[in-house]
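tl;dr need the bound structure. longer version: we got a ligand (thiamine diphosphate) that a collaborator sent over and nobodys looked at where it sits. i said id run it. heres the input, straight from their email, havent touched it
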Amino acid sequence: MAVSEIGKDKLLHMYRKMGEIRVFEETAADLFMKGRLPGFLHSSVGQEASSVGACAALRPEDYMTSTHRGHGDIIAKGATLDRMMAELFAKETGYCKGKGGSMHIADLDLGILGATGIVGAGLPYAVGAALGFKMKGTDQVVLSFFGDGGSNTGAFHEALNLAAVWDLPVIFLCHNNQYAETTPQRVHQKIKDVAVRAQAHGIPGVTVDGMDVLAVYETTKAAVERAKKGEGPTLIESKTYRFMGHFVGDPGVGIYRTREEVEEWRKRDPIPNFRKVLIEAGVATEAELNQIDQDVAKEMEEAIRFAEASPEPELEEALQDIFVES
Ligand SMILES: Cc1ncc(C[n+]2csc(CCOP(=O)(O)OP(=O)(O)O)c2C)c(N)n1
Ligand SMILES: [Mg+2]
């Protein structure tokens, strides 16, 4: 898709969101390694174009689900860095009042149905939400993010099958980052492209360059249009890479992948590449993009201050919002 068809505001929004994700992930990893954050973190650095391209094709009223590596997807859907950081700090002002933590962030007002630490578990509840939209007769859609490892679960196949037979408005978006924990895709799957699994369910399957935000945007937009018209789900495989280890603390090189492999993928870093596209197409100047980078850095500093200054949840609230009152 030519940049001229997308419009400057949207393009700069995508650039900003990718920057927000990068700085959030790097800051969170740094705080975690200094022992200042509780819990466990999975960084999505490298996957920014995959998250942002997909969410840029959604409207605020559309829903999404995500995974243990979900910070990027959630920021791309509209979450702000302050409440994200507060959630990681387990503070009252976090998206889930500090009870969700890194892997379980949700906000229904933003259409973020939830992330989950259970691999593959986000797919069936995306299908449930899509069934709800279809029964209500709205034109909302649901996008479910998952990984290459997630595409090996039974839940993946059950979700695709049901969404296919009922023509539900779902987009299944696989961040194929080449690894499931420390296992390379070639070891955990016989197929090269996750997208071919769509054939088993009679739905379209598309493979896209997940380091190219515009390619992901265009592909997702087409899938959203199809879903809105009642034509059913699409499986999109976005080929991407996580630059960091599986979890923050995993060096990510030497044991299960080589430094050279990581360096090769780093040359395809989606953020400087998109910056180049914007400048070469005359969409923005260096100065405009530098200003966005500075605004993002400031937003991050304020987010840390906000999270640090926020109160801990009260002990009496420990069981609130955990069970549904009947
Ligand atoms: C049902 C289930 N099985 C195993 C695990 C342990 N586990 C956590 S992350 C992960 C790998 C997932 O790989 P992928 O779906 O490719 O996501 P990525 O980590 O690459 O983002 C596994 C097996 C889990 N959390 N849930
Ligand atoms: Mg993976």
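gonna send this back to them w/ a short note. The pocket of thiamine diphosphate (ligand 1) is lined by residues 67-69, 117-119, 147-150, 177, 179-181, 246 (CB under 6 Å).
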